[in-house]
Amino acid sequence: MIQFKNISSEEPYLIFQDWYQEAVNAGQLRVQAIAISSYNADTELVDSRFVNLKYIDKDRWVFFSNYNGPKAQAFESNQTISALFYWSATDAQIRMRAHIEKIPAEESDAYFANREPEKNALAIASHQSEEIESYEEVVKNYQAALESGDTSKRPEYWGGFQFTPYYIEFWSGDRYRLNKRQVFTKKQGAWKSKFLQP
Ligand SMILES: Cc1cc2nc3c(=O)[nH]c(=O)nc-3n(C[C@H](O)[C@H](O)[C@H](O)COP(=O)(O)O)c2cc1C
To answer: Which domain holds residue 108?
Structure first.
C-alpha cells in the first residue's frame, strides 16, 4: 500500500489518488510496485527494477533501498529517472519523468526505527547486488544480523530516495484501443495538461 501524506491538491496528484484507489478497490496485487529506470552516466548503462513506493509526501515520492548498489550509483551520476506503474486490474499505466535524490538522514532513521526487526536484519546484512557464494551464505548473514541484537539503528548504507515528477502521463486502456492518454508537464511551478493520440 502507498501512504498519502500532505497530498498536493494539484490536478495530476488528485487523478493519481483516484486511479490508485480504483486499482485497490479492483483488487490489484502489489499496487505499490513501481518500475524505476535509471541511466548511469559513468558506465553508460540503462537499467530498470521494481521497488515498493512507500509514501507520497507533498511532491516527494519515497522508496527505500541500499545506498551502495547499482541503482544508487546511477542516481548519483544522473539524477533523472523514469518511473512506471501498470495496474492490470484497471488496465491503467502511469508514466513519469522525475528528479531523484536521497531523503534527509533523520527521515530514514525514523523510518528504519519503526520497521520490523526481520526486515531491518536483511537491510543490515545485505550488500545489495554484490555477488555471493550461495543463497545459504545470504541466509547465514541474515541470521547473524538478526541475532546480533540491535536492529533498529539504520546502517549508513541504507535509506530512502525521493523523486519529484515533472512529467506524468495517465494512460487508460480501452477494449477497442481507443485508449485515453493525458499528459501533465510541470514548468515554472505550474502543471500544463494535454492529450496524446493513442
Ligand atoms: C515487486 C518488487 C518490489 C521491490 N521493492 C524493492 C524496494 O523497495 N527496495 C529495493 O531496494 N529493492 C526492491 N526490489 C528488488 C529490486 O527490484 C532490485 O532487485 C534491487 O533493489 C537491486 O537493484 P539494483 O541492482 O538496480 O540496485 C523489489 C522487487 C520487486 C519485484
So the answer is: 3-114+157-196
CA of 49 to the centre of ligand 1 (A): 6
Q: How far apart are CA 187 and CA 67, in angstroms?
A: 30
The CATH number that applies at residue 165 is 2.30.110.10
Helical spans, DSSP H, in the chain: 11-25, 70-77, 105-113, 117-125, 135-147
Kindly report whether the global pTM for this prediction surpasses the value 0.90.
yes
Could you tell me if residue 147 is inside a domain?
no
Q: What is the pLDDT of residues 29-40, one digit of tens each?
A: 999 999 999 999
Is 130 within a domain?
no
**CB of residue 50 inside a 6 A radius of ligand 1:** yes
Pocket test for ligand 1, best of 30, 36, 51 (most atoms within 8 A of CB): 51
